Amino acid sequence: MLGGPGHVLDSHPGPPYAARPMAGTELLLIRHAESEWNAAGRWQGLANPPLSPRGREQARTLAERLAPESLGRLICSDLRRAVETANAIGEVCGLVAQQDPALRERDVGRWTGLTRAEIEVDDGDLLAAFSRRDDPDLRPGGGESARELQHRVHQAVGRLVAEAPGVRSVLVVHLGVIRALVPGREVGHAEITPLRV
């Protein structure tokens, strides 16, 4: 069985999971493997770079780790880095990835494709405010706010769980999506965060 911290969405307020005493569906949240832009230090948002060679190896290793697990569904963002990671898992685990655009990464607007140093040149104050993570309505690069991201992601997960209650599912997503579901959680590429809802 997979180890690691188990998180329950109802441990923090917010729709649609507030005040649930018992949790019944296990989700394995997985951040996609390293992309070419991750390797280059570029902010991706909704951009669609492929996995890097290292990322392809991470995806294969992750798939082998998941092979002995009992998994019922495989769902992923429709962005290439998540799809490629999910396809590697699916090949080993005998599952077909279902793509869901509601699981995309946070839109970072004009910051897409830039490095942190490049963003600091023209948007240093906004980047500093974003880094503090204390304003849920701040729009990085004019993109999506944390409040909007959380609403989108919670709605998607609620829908997915309602479609298959009790089915242990893998969700291959992005760091922003994981943070929206498990506030404060930081994960590396191809890392698993178990979550009960």
Short description:
With 197 residues, the chain is α/β, with parallel strands linked by helices. The chain contains 6 helices and 6 strands.
Blueprint of the fold:
Blueprint: E1 7-8, E2 26-31, H1 36-40, H2 53-66, E3 73-76, H3 80-93, E4 98-99, H4 116-132, H5 146-163, E5 169-173, H6 175-181, E6 192-196
Helix pairs in contact: 2-3, 5-6
Verbal overview:
- This protein has 197 residues and is of the alpha/beta class.
- The chain has one domain (7-196): Phosphoglycerate mutase-like (Rossmann fold).
- Helix content is 38%, strand content 12%.
- Strand 3, helix 3 and strand 4 form a beta-alpha-beta unit.
- It starts with 6 loop residues before the first strand and ends with a strand.
Q: What labels would you give this structure?
A:
197 residues; alpha/beta; Rossmann fold; six-stranded mixed beta sheet; 6 helices; 38% helix; globular; disordered N terminus
Q: Assign an overall shape.
A: globular
Rg calc: 16 Å
Spatial strand sequence of the major β-sheet = 1-6-2-5-3-4
Task: Give the structural class.
Answer: alpha/beta
Q: What's the number of helices? A: 6
CATH homologous superfamily?
Answer: Phosphoglycerate mutase-like
What is the averaged pLDDT score?
90
